Amino acid sequence: MSTMTDWDFDPGEKVISMKEWKERYEWVEDPQVSPDGENVAAVVNLGNGEFTVCNNGEAWESPCEKIWCLRFSPDGRLTAIVCQEMEWTMSVDGTFWDSRFDFLWNTRFSDDGAHIAAAWQNDLTYGMTLDDVSWETGYSNMSGMCLSPEGGKTAAVVQTIGLNEGEIFKFAEGAYTAALNGKTWPRNFMNVWDIAFSSNSEHIAAEVRLDRTTYTIAVDGETWKQRYDCVWTPKFHPSEHKVVAPVRVAGAWTLAENGVLIWKNRYLQLWQTLYSPCGKHIAAIVSPAYGKWTMAKDDQPWNNRFGEMVSDPVFSPNGDRLAVSVKDNGKWTLAVNDQVWGQWFNRVWGPVFSPDGRYVASRVESDGKFTCAVNGKAWEKTYDFCLDPVFSPDGDRLLVRAFKDGAYYRIVIPTTQIAG
Amino acid sequence: MHTIYQFVSGPLAWIAFILFAGGCIYRVAALLHTVYQKERFIFSYMSWRHSLNSIFHWIIPFASVNSRKHPVMTVVTFVFHISLILVPIFLLSHIVLWDEAWNITWPALPDGLADVMTVLVILSCVFFLARRIVLPEVKYVTSASDYVILAIVAAPFITGFYAYHQWPGYSFVMILHILAGEIMLIAIPFSRLRHMLFSVFTRAYMGSEFGGVRHARDW
Amino acid sequence: MGDPAVQNDAAVEAKVVDEGIDRGVEALTPERIESVINQVFEKETGARLQAYVETCVHCGLCSEACHFYLSNDKDPKFSPVGKVKQTIWEMVKRKGRVDADFIRNAVEVAHTQCNLCKRCAMYCPFGIDIAYLMLVVRRICHKLGVTPLYIQDTVNSHSVTMNQMWVKEDEWIDTLQWQEEEGRDEIPDLRIPVEKEGADIMYSVIAPEPKFQAGLIYQAAVLMNVAGMNWTMPATPGWDNSDMAMYTGDNEIMARVKRSHFETARRLRVNKIVMGECGHAFRSIYDMGNRQLGWKMPPIPVQHAIDFYDELLREGKIRIARKFEKSVTLHDPCNIVRGRGLHEKSRSVVRAMCDNFIEMHPNREHNYCCAAGGGVINCGPPYKQKRMAGNRVKAEQLAATKAEVLIAPCHNCHSGLEDIIHHYKLDMEVKFILDILYECMEKPE
Ligand code: HEM
Ligand code: SF4
Ligand code: SF4
């Protein structure tokens, strides 16, 4: 297992050609790149309906009938969901889990990558498995699977009461609840959505619908006393036991904490709340006027407004800066603390802060050419595709992972080479 | 009789004009205010080009498919509305009144033409009345108020026609005529006749939605 | 026991039993009705409702716009304004003090006798949007808990699974993998790239495709592969673009489902969403769902299949190998014609594929609705007879073309027209554009 401090941040370029893979295999599917950029892997077709995974040119030993959802975990292990003899399992670096399933999907990693979870279906019952240990009970349906941030617990929305087609009144009585590690909350709801874990993984909260028109938040199965026209995903405070959620009251959105409205402004839309890492600030994507989007930090909307979209908000590690990708007039860029980058792109991905918060970088695309941009300046070198940039722990170096002409490039450059 | 005449043509006329003008302004302002309060999103879709395009297609006879499907109705309604608006404004004897009171004048319609147009308005009202009684789809949605509105619109023209031709008792009918005209004016902002005010807005909105968002014609 | 074929209409009418409505109505109280109606009027509607009610001069000129009216022997109850009279006018006039029987009739009128096709908005001299008024009625009924059972069940499915047909997450992925495998028999290196972040196109479909018509996904995959598109399909909920919540007035669920669709496209960072041949789904992502969420226009451009095919043909990315031989006619789905003006594009695609194209009349923006749209077909079997009776004009219009094939580039229209063809015993086959395009296009050897 590698940690970031071991990563090679010496400026330079490493190239892994994939052309030869294409000759060796019937075809090579969309490649995946490890977080440290040292490995590139793809599902490859061996012919005769057999597939394997090729990681830096080396194939996993046992071929499979089907392979999908190839993903590197944050700690650099390569996982894929594989099927052999009509049974599905997880392969981690080519080694299969012991359990077999009728279907497996939705791979989830803990923040550090040490834990791997996925959703399964067996004999038309559904559950989750964490590091090859499955829930004891299966349910007749399941959605909204999630893994706690440190990876110790799994949760999902499950159906505990069977419903036949057209049983709308039984549905209204409540057939769904949340399950933590496979154990359900004591009560059911009409709907449950978007489970959130507390940072210590002890608690979960979710949106619940009590009847056709009544919504609220439930924390560990207990609903808030207040009722709303609608709600969106709750969020736990990083250290204290409190929950915030966007709620709609009298036709407008605002923010509630443990059921009490804490923001004064009313918005046309409000979602994706996030706490700053220390928990001092709360931000959210808001729409202060119809068709206008921006960020609000502690109920203060930014002055800049964007016509189409505001997405992927993120705080700098010290919580002072807030960055977000924005879309207006068909073009994307980034905005940081209400300052919009000068240059607009065809597409921009979510912002990435350097650990010290000095730099904000992002993957950008214009005219089909990809590159990375830092603090508003795009690198002049472009690629056919690239992934999100990664900063070295001191922020001075930038790792660019990109593809061009059938080869994979791992490039480390001084951050100033782009940022100036 | 004379004092009644004085009253209806003096203070009452003032009241009628004030209620008409004030009522119209109030109605339109209230409508826009409600949009601002409750459906502000509408403004963001409004487009001059598409609004005007739609309005023109509906104020030009036979420019819309439906107006071609109902040729008689189309002719009647255009003749009706044009006459209804032109006659009161451009009738010589009305202009004379304006001249006497305010010393302002404008060109008048020939009396003969105005007379014909008056008859056309009355006949149109008869036609509308007949539609309401005869056509099932109109009858089904007709309420008493629709007859009252037709009567309110027809009355000034019937009485005006009578008075103009100075048939027996015309001085009394003249008072009725003035009253009827005043009632009609007041009724515009305060009854379904306010379609005169709202039609531009409903049309413009539909035109903007169809033209700007849906990229389709609405005529 | 009578043979259903010889039952008269009155008997059919008497038999409409809809538990969703019946049980819903039983639970109503006058106070509840009054408060819900007034709440919707005061808090959720505004100038439009007011202007539409006050401007209407009761002239009846909208009547002939409506296929229900024309097909039911011009029964004025079925005219657009006649439906407003039976619902909104009374609610406004009586300030919400209407009884449960009134609501029972209102829900039936608004849900099963209007397709929200907006044809009448093109016939009313004032542009009064009666479809909007019927949606207000449906919203009221939703809040009263009185919604036809079948469509409510569909909305429940949306709320749980984010798709229309209770398709479970594994079933969806499995279907994509299965179609990819099938496709390889024809095109050996065919791919359906799932979850390909940064692709150009996210292709989205409605849930009946994986549920019943997986072949359409197959055909689309062939098209994408032959045209060399950089495309993807999501492996998460949000893949479905359909929306029955929009049609029951459950705006909150509509918003939730559309959010999941757009967020999925955003997460995959595609340049655009291309969707299959569906009309109501287009309305939902292009017009209604996005607005409910506060997006003036879709935050990520959405392109309907017709527009996409037209582009591929014009740019030569798809070529026609041989023309389709049978005579065809073309139905103009309301939601993409009156809803997006795609009628000329659909004609250019059809002309490119077919030599023998016969117009039906009226057409383009003035086309008659299929009577299935607006959630009407989704109200299910109890209303099927009425739906058939309510669109005789469509059958006549189709019959007059004498075409062998009817192209219906919309799922709802497709099913609704199949019902009509069957009911009126027309000799016609219904096809999607893609069915023919797939058959006629150049494919690698
Ligand atoms: C200047 C703007 C006006 C416009 C655009 C307009 C338009 C219309 C339209 C489109 C109709 C629908 C039915 C038809 O075509 O006949 C109508 C009906 C009618 N209008 Fe107007 N109108 C206007 C002004 C007025 C005024 C000032 C009056 C009378 C004071 C009036 C009286 C009527 C009446 C009585 C009907 C009902 C006919 C019936 O009973 O069927 N209109 N108007
Ligand atoms: S079905 Fe169409 S024409 Fe008929 S009332 Fe509804 S929207 Fe209008
Ligand atoms: S055409 Fe328009 S004004 Fe006339 S009855 Fe219909 S909705 Fe009312």
Task: Report on the architecture of this protein.
- The complex is a heterotrimer of chains A (420), B (219) and C (445).
- Chain A has 420 residues and is mainly β.
- Among the domains of chain A are: 1-100, no CATH class; 319-420, Neuraminidase.
- Helices cover 4% and strands 51% of the residues of chain A.
- Chain A has three helices and 43 strands.
- In chain A, strands 1, 40, 41, 42 and 43 form a five-stranded antiparallel β-sheet that branches. In chain A, strands 22, 23, 24, 25 and 26 form a five-stranded antiparallel β-sheet that branches.
- Chain B starts with a helix and ends in a 6-residue tail after the last helix.
- Chain B is mainly alpha-helical.
- The model of chain B has no long low-confidence stretch (mean pLDDT 95).
- The model of chain C is unreliable at 1-12 (pLDDT under 50).
- The longest helix of chain C is centred in the middle third of the chain and has 18 residues, at 169-186.
- Chains A and C meet through β6, β10 and α2 of A and α2, α9, α10 and α14 of C.
- The complex binds protoporphyrin IX containing FE (HEM) and iron/sulfur cluster (2 copies).
- One iron/sulfur cluster binds at residues 56-62, 80-81, 124, 126, 128 of chain C.
Known CATH architecture of the domain at 319-420 in chain A: 6 Propeller
The SS-based structural class of chain B is: mainly alpha
> Using CB atoms under 8 Å apart, which protein chain pair has the greatest interface?
A-C, 56 and 49 residues
CATH topology of the domain at 319-420 in chain A: Neuraminidase
Describe the biggest sheet of chain A? 5 strands, antiparallel
CATH domain class of chain B? Mainly Alpha
Features:
heterotrimer, B: 219 residues, mainly alpha, Fumarate Reductase Cytochrome B subunit, 12 helices, globular, C: 445 residues, Fumarate Reductase Iron-sulfur Protein, Chain B, domain 2, Rossmann fold, 3 domains, four-stranded parallel beta sheet, disordered N terminus, binds protoporphyrin IX containing FE, binds iron/sulfur cluster
